Amino acid sequence: MIKCLILGCVSAKDPTDGSGGVLFFEFPNDTDVRRKWCDSIEAFQGPLTEFTEVCERHFEPEALVENRYLKWDAVPTLFETTDFNGTKTLLEVINGCVEQDGSGQVRCRLQENDVPCCFSQERFESRALLRHICEAHVAFAEFVGLSGVKRTNRMISTCTNGRSKVAQLTKKVLNHVSIDEDGYRCRIEGSTCLYFQLKMFPNNFARHFRDMHPVKAFDNGYFDGFRREDICLKKKVKFIIGHSQCDYSVKIFNVEKLRRHFCEEHPTEAGQYRLFKTTQRLIRADSDQESLPLKYLQLVEANVVRTRNGIVRCRISNSDCRYKQRGFVPGSFYCHFSLHHPVEARAKGFFASEEHSEREPTPVPMETAEEFITSPSDDDLRLTTPSDDPSSYCRLCFSIAQPLRPIFAGPEDIDGGGLVELISNCTNIRLCARTDFPSSICYECTQKLDDIQRFRQLCETLDTVVRRQGRMKRDLSVESDGEPEVTPVADAPQVETIANSTDDGRQSVPEKRRNYTELSIRDQIYFKCTDCGFLSTSGENVKRHWVRFHTGRKKLAAKITCSVTGCSDFFFSPKTQKHHLEIVHGIRNKVNVKVPDRIKIDEAYVKLEESQYACRNCGKLYPTIPSVLEHFKQSHRWSKIYRKEKIEIAQESPVDNVCQAVVINGVSYFKCRDCEVLMVKKSDLAVHWLKQHGEGANGSH
């Protein structure tokens, strides 16, 4: 049954009833709006449970849309209009039950069994008065319609039966702790929590459950009676160490700040609770040693100084370190040296034994590499899985409070949708559906794995950029050297492969792949590339050519095939083709590759805006005229521009006199003769020319 949260409101609704009735609204998710709700209903709020909401009777009519939906910024404001017995409002009932005495205090006027009530207030608070009426004067509360209002945990300390409530809380807490010879330990979520108390403080355990294990705490009733504001907003936390209560408090739970406070202000209790050993790498979990070894104790003594006031200060470095202690605790100074002065501590021998223990371990045989080897320190950790069901906790971090998702879709799922490979690459943990199904992973671990994968991809990309930059510099050095000249041979002899004189018939396997072969042409040794027809008298030149053109590091130019019938060799420059023809085929100056120097500039390029020039045939853009002319020579050598014979041009139409066809990026355009306008249709360009450059145009040429 859903009930209204406002005190005195009797609205209720069955969740299974779909016939309508009074509308109820939950607290909003927005932080600012939720805070406004808490501030507005603070003086009229009843007990908060999972079945309490705010009904529609406490909102203005303008806050509802179509009398069904609530606006996102609406705040409950109507708390005094609810009628009791049809005649009196809530404040009228409260005002009729109190009176003000001569000292200015507000006293209750009601009586129980003809005995005056002793309840009083220094100032009028309707919320406290309502609770007093509902608890101390039950008959009157039922008469005016205030029955069903219960106490909250805030009134336990002011009630006469507060001790029974503490006993009930202690009994509840004992169900979720374990008792050993050292004290009380938290076991609300198994044996993974390290929270410990020397004596039983039930309120401290309850607060620990709410802060560190909220899901289990909510399921076991440790949030019962708390307001929504108390649950959502974090308050300051005070800690008790030993038997005396300290006024030190922190707004956000910080282990390092609290440890430092305990070590400085409560050194005796901190040493008893082993707080000095939490950050020492020297003292392990399986050690029962209570003090530092004599060697480290002497080192600590040599690096501190005592003042007349009994204060011990750090002097391990030349810098002015402000760390000090009122009571000398060597273990605390050892931790300080290790954390804040690691260079000086290592130089003075504080890490001598650790460096010896952190050496590279002995290799493990392959047959036992996959077996889990249990060491004595593993037993002392006393860690177990949070639950026997693998799907109820995260496989990587043992978390049960975050949303979980299954790793495998079923026992037959091999890769888990790529998640298994991602976990293996990032953590070196190889999961198998046959043994690990139905394991789960939490949302936070999934995000961490994605971040690691993206970081690895980014590093690989940047490494590729660096290596490519280095290759470009090496290619520039190769280009500066140029391809070597080869000596032409008059005739084309038979090509024979040189046999190794020391070959004994056995096939030898080379250590590395050779990217050239040795050829003998007219008693002259040449080296030929294995992937194209490049020839040279030096093998190093062929290697550099192969790295430049056949490793994918540079964009290849257009291939030039040998013009001799039956020869399948190809090249990447006319010069290499010419050398091939002269050496292999004995052909000299048979191929006319000469390009006329004089070029018709108007037919080679088109000038565009922003000082760019486009090739007339292919549309490529170049910043200067010489660069586009050089491109035209190399790429369009067989164009009609270079033919010496005259080409008969068909009779042109009148429109052809005012435009010319150009190709830009593979698309054909028509360019105006008198300006730089480009159009797709010739008719549109003719209209443009008549309007802008014709006889009737303004300012015509």
UniProtKB/TrEMBL annotation:
<dbReference type="Pfam" id="PF07776">
    <property type="entry name" value="zf-AD"/>
</dbReference>
<keyword id="KW-0863">Zinc-finger</keyword>
<dbReference type="GO" id="GO:0003677">
    <property type="term" value="F:DNA binding"/>
</dbReference>
<feature type="domain" description="ZAD">
    <location>
        <begin position="392"/>
        <end position="469"/>
    </location>
</feature>
<dbReference type="Pfam" id="PF05485">
    <property type="entry name" value="THAP"/>
</dbReference>
<feature type="domain" description="THAP-type">
    <location>
        <begin position="1"/>
        <end position="79"/>
    </location>
</feature>
<keyword id="KW-0677">Repeat</keyword>
<feature type="binding site">
    <location>
        <position position="397"/>
    </location>
    <ligand>
        <name>Zn(2+)</name>
    </ligand>
</feature>
<dbReference type="InterPro" id="IPR006612">
    <property type="entry name" value="THAP_Znf"/>
</dbReference>
<feature type="domain" description="C2H2-type">
    <location>
        <begin position="613"/>
        <end position="641"/>
    </location>
</feature>
<feature type="binding site">
    <location>
        <position position="442"/>
    </location>
    <ligand>
        <name>Zn(2+)</name>
    </ligand>
</feature>
<keyword id="KW-0479">Metal-binding</keyword>
<protein>
    <submittedName>
        <fullName>Predicted protein</fullName>
    </submittedName>
</protein>
<feature type="domain" description="C2H2-type">
    <location>
        <begin position="527"/>
        <end position="555"/>
    </location>
</feature>
<feature type="binding site">
    <location>
        <position position="445"/>
    </location>
    <ligand>
        <name>Zn(2+)</name>
    </ligand>
</feature>
<keyword id="KW-0862">Zinc</keyword>
<dbReference type="GO" id="GO:0005634">
    <property type="term" value="C:nucleus"/>
</dbReference>
<dbReference type="GO" id="GO:0008270">
    <property type="term" value="F:zinc ion binding"/>
</dbReference>
<feature type="binding site">
    <location>
        <position position="394"/>
    </location>
    <ligand>
        <name>Zn(2+)</name>
    </ligand>
</feature>
<dbReference type="InterPro" id="IPR013087">
    <property type="entry name" value="Znf_C2H2_type"/>
</dbReference>
<dbReference type="InterPro" id="IPR012934">
    <property type="entry name" value="Znf_AD"/>
</dbReference>
<keyword id="KW-0238">DNA-binding</keyword>
